């Protein structure tokens, strides 16, 4: 075997070892470092680097081999693509030089940079698109890189591109899995009717987790003046760097990434906010952040309801495309949370109006009519008493009977008014008026209409508002909300019937015509319903419906003696009955 043949065989062995080494793992970061190390071994170079390109065709990452951490710190910031390094970006073809400094395209080395003479660079493409460039310098032994070295490095770059592509696909798959899990959790919280601020905090936290970011904030306008070009934006939710100090902060200046996204209604993404002259950073204006992404929270009618801003510290990698897609989805969910909060506030106000209308009808149809009839009866008594001459014994007895009946009617009217007043009281003291249980449940059914795609039917039996205490009503609303949320998310139903009966026991039924409960479906929501019933001494069951679908039955006692409602039911009964004595 000739020396040349022996060298070629050794070169092929080195190349095969390099190819095997970069294809071992699926972690992108590990794969990139292995590519740089293997490239140096393939052509026997002292120094090697991989410059990863961003969307703007500038170097956004620079991975090196052959220099210590102290040497890297002494050199300063990594290159971005000038001189010889930029030549490979502008003209992505292999480049081999005997002496870097002697080339007219060279811009020299920064202070404290180790001396480098020979140079070999090849482009690295992934999925047919420029990914970066491999830069090799200082052939060991002091010679120049040869044509054989160039061919070996080109072959290695081709194999490395497949390894990098596989690692990127694997990383994107894992990220999308985290994205889907986060998306499902946010959707569950939204449909279960959780507090909007809590959902916004979850959106910001998941945005940080999926994007590997350092800070995230959600800002909403505090005024809605149509004449103002930019309403005042205030941070409503924040996670990450100085999160507590960010809450409630007014985002300034107006020429910021968040303002730009809010006004234009389009995402604004930058690799380095400190050098981007399009806008300023409002979330952390002290130069803390580098990569920044701002997304408008667009609701119905394409009107921005706020803005989601996510950032990484200065010097970190820019946000890849798949992360930008995930953040856009989170921004959409934040917009849904804000819209649902508005809808629930509207539904609560409507429930109050409906409850007041009901009370007005009750007072008019019952209390006022009773008082009117009592007044007519007393007018008859007054005429008899005003007549000249004494009353006959039978007239006296009849008049006394009329007066007694009038007093009884007045007493019953007082009891009715007491019941109405008690229905307006809020035992928790949080609201000046207590909304009736019927109105609360109707509001929940209205709120679920959008998620279901149709309006559920609701039927009541018995004196619901009179017998259901507010403590039980709070559980009842939560149970109905979770039941309708489950039907919207899992049942694929076309009809949902809700029934509530009060007759000693309070029984809520929710029946749908959907696909039923899968055997492997998570039972956390149903467990919560069962736990609520147990706390009040009741029961809960979920079973197949008679004509398919699912039937849920939630029962709690309303009479004294049931655990959790003993005393509560009696208190309500006492409040309804009132005093049986005559008014003094």
CATH class wording of the largest domain: Alpha Beta
Provide the gyration radius in Å: 38 Å
CATH architecture of the largest domain: 2-Layer Sandwich
Mean pLDDT: 80
The structural domain count equals 3
Order of helices and strands: HHEEHHEEEHHEEHHEEEHHHEHHEEHEEH
What's the count of strands? Answer: 15
Give the overall shape, derived from the CA principal axes: elongated
Contiguous runs where pLDDT drops below 50 for at least 5 residues: 426-434, 560-584
Strand content: 15-25%
Structure description:
There is one protein chain. By secondary structure, this protein is an alpha+beta fold. The protein has 3 domains: 3-172, Beta-Lactamase; 174-344, GAF domain (Beta-Lactamase, 2-Layer Sandwich); 429-584, Heat Shock Protein 90. The protein is 49% helix and 19% strand. It is built from 15 helices and 15 strands. It has helices spanning 3-22, 28-43, 69-75, 83-90, 147-191, 196-211, 243-246, 257-264, 321-386, 393-424, 437-452, 464-467, 470-491, 524-535, 568-577; strands at residues 45-53, 59-65, 95-97, 119-126, 129-139, 215-221, 233-240, 268-270, 289-298, 304-313, 457-461, 496-502, 505-512, 539-544, 550-557. The strands form 3 sheets. The protein has a 5-stranded antiparallel beta sheet with strand order 2-1-5-4-3, with helices on both faces. The chain has a 5-stranded antiparallel beta sheet with strand order 7-6-10-9-8, with helices on both faces. Helix 9 (321-386) runs antiparallel to helix 10 (393-424) and helix 13 runs antiparallel to helix 14. The longest helix is centred in the middle third of the chain and has 66 residues, at 321-386. The termini are far apart. Mean pLDDT is 80; it is low at 426-434 and 560-584.
């Amino acid at each position: 075997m000739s020396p040349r043949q022996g060298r070629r065989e050794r070169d092929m062995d080195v190349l095969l070892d390099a190819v095997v080494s970069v294809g071992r793992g699926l972690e992108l970061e590990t794969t990139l470092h292995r590519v740089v190390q293997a490239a140096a071994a393939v052509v026997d170079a002292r120094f090697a680097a991989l410059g990863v390109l961003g969307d703007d065709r500038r170097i956004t990452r620079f991975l090196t081999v052959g220099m210590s951490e102290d040497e890297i710190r002494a050199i300063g910031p990594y290159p971005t693509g000038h001189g010889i390094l930029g030549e490979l970006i502008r003209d992505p073809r292999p480049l081999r030089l005997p002496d870097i400094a002697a080339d007219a395209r060279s811009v020299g080395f920064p202070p404290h940079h180790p001396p480098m003479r020979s140079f070999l660079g090849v482009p690295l493409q992934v999925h047919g698109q420029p990914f970066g460039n491999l830069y090799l310098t200082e052939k060991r032994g002091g010679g120049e890189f040869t044509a054989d070295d160039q061919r070996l490095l080109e072959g290695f770059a081709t194999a490395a591109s497949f390894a990098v592509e596989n690692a990127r696909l694997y990383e994107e798959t894992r990220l999308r899995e985290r994205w889907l899990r986060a998306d499902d959790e946010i959707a569950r919280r939204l449909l279960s009717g959780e507090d909007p601020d809590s959902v916004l905090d979850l959106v910001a936290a998941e945005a940080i987790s999926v994007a590997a970011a350092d800070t995230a904030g959600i800002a909403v306008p505090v005024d809605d003046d149509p004449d103002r070009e930019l309403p005042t934006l205030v941070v409503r939710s924040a996670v990450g760097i100085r999160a507590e100090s960010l809450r409630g902060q007014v985002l300034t200046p107006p020429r910021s990434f968040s303002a730009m996204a809010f006004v234009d209604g389009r995402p604004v993404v930058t690799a380095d906010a400190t050098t981007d002259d399009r806008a300023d950073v409002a979330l952390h204006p002290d130069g803390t952040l580098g990569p920044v992404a701002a997304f408008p929270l667009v609701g119905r009618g394409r009107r921005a309801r706020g803005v989601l801003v996510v950032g990484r510290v200065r010097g970190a990698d820019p946000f890849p495309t798949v992360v930008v897609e995930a953040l856009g989805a989170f921004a959409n969910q934040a917009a849904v949370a804000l819209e649902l909060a508005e809808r629930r506030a509207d539904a609560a106000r409507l429930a109050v109006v409906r409850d007041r209308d009901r009370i007005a009808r009750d007072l008019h149809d019952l209390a006022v009519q009773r008082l009117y009839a009592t007044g007519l009866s007393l007018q008859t008594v007054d005429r008899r008493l005003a007549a000249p001459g004494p009353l006959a014994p039978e007239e006296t007895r009849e008049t006394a009977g009329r007066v007694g009946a009038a007093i009884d009617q007045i007493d019953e009217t007082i009891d009715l008014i007491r019941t109405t007043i008690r229905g307006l009281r809020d035992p928790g003291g949080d609201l000046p008026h207590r909304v009736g249980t019927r109105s609360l449940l109707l509001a929940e059914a209205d709120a679920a209409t959008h998620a279901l795609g149709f309006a559920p039917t609701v039927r009541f039996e018995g004196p619901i508002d009179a017998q259901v205490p507010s403590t039980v009503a709070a559980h009842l609303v939560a149970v109905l909300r979770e039941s309708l949320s489950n039907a919207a998310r899992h049942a694929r139903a076309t009809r949902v019937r809700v029934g509530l009966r009060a007759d000693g026991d309070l029984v809520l039924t929710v029946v749908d015509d959907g696909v039923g409960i899968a055997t492997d479906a998570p039972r956390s929501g149903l467990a919560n319903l069962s736990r609520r019933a147990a706390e009040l001494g009741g029961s809960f069951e979920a079973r197949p419906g008679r004509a398919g679908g699912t039937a849920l039955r939630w029962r709690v006692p309303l009479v004294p003696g049931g655990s959790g409602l003993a005393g509560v039911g009696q208190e309500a009964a006492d409040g309804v009955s009132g005093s049986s004595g005559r008014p003094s």
